[in-house]
Amino acid sequence: MSVDLSRIKNIVILMMENRSFDQMLGYLSLPPFNRGDVDGQSTEAAWLIRFTNYDQGVGLQPFLFTDPHTMPTKFDPPHERPYMSKHLGTPQNGIYPMTGFPAAIPGEISSDPAVRRLVMSYFGAKQAPMNDFFAQKFAICDRYFCSIPAGTQPNRLIAMSGFSMIEVNQTPLPEQELVYDWLTRNNVTWRVYHQGIPFFTMMLRWVEPILFDDHFRSFEDLEQDLMNTPPDQLPQVIFVEPVYGDAPHLGRSTDDHAPAGISDGQEFLMQVYNAVTNASPTFWKNAVLIVHYDENGAFFDHVSPPLIPMQPPPAATYAPFGSLGARVPAYVISPFVQPGSVSRAILDHTSVLKLIGEKFGQNGSYSSVVDARPVESISAVLNFDSPILDSPAAPNLSADYLVDRPPAPAGATVPPLNTALQKAFSDAVEQMKQKGADQNHKKFGALLSQI
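RE: above sequence
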């Protein structure tokens, strides 16, 4: 598909953590919404029978979870490659059954049936008001899948490179080119605005730039930068990062990673949207904001991933992946979408790189690896016919939503190092200290003084 992207000046990318499409947007196909254009949850008997998941002999079906603020302590179902394989099941005639989600949870995570069944839960509009706002006012992607049925690090590496040298989380992250390098090489300006410790602090060569380089700024600076910087001096590509719950952090985690609830993430989405839309009308009128999730975090989705394989890059030693991973939420928020629309284009994380390549790359290309990926670009979601020049106002979450959530943690939260990702973030903090960060560091001093 060829589209004229000349009206787009800035691309903003926000990747959240560990939720499935059905959990966050599947409610749209249920009453009272009855969105026939959304392939979400169903109450039809045949559908429920087909997607019943069994755990210890008990059949489990999707159910509405009415608490957006908390989940049971320590409930973080494993979602690395071996577990993802169990979630999807064995394909028959190219179709995965999608019935292994609760049964894959190890007993040490929880033996309580009421807790284990939470992987089959979904939220409604009341529990996820920003999800609902985006779905009503902008575009959602009904066939956006994580790139491989694996966990956080490999999917994020693919999202930032088009390939991953690893199949499971490890510390530190292996050295490989990132989109930051590509943008610099192609003379495209970029910046990362982060609430907490940026993800790629886990890749050692990025520690010093994250500490001392103006490419990496606090999220608190985003709105003022958009407001006060001349349009032609704003970064052409902006990455926004939440507070990761698996990293040492102050206050709330905002990445949606279980066992946290989603209300803190909903507030963060509101803040990002308000910054992009309110700070500068000029910026909004030329921008595309992409919000997506790295993988499904072991939560149920019923749509079988397409059998699009991914070969390991040279020097990587893992076995090829035979399909995309599970479906995840993805929103395209821009003047250049049809309000309330649903894209059925087959997309994955490389679809964002394809858009970057189309807009900024030589001959519209990001790389031969990304070009060869048989998925569409995010540009397939765009519609330039009737631009949304006046951005709709986001819901005021504090009025009747955030008031019910628990108080923010006092002091620093230091995760217990139960997972490879937690260890990788902990090791990244030690690297930050070795590179000169201390309690006086402008961005990280308050955190480092408490851990």
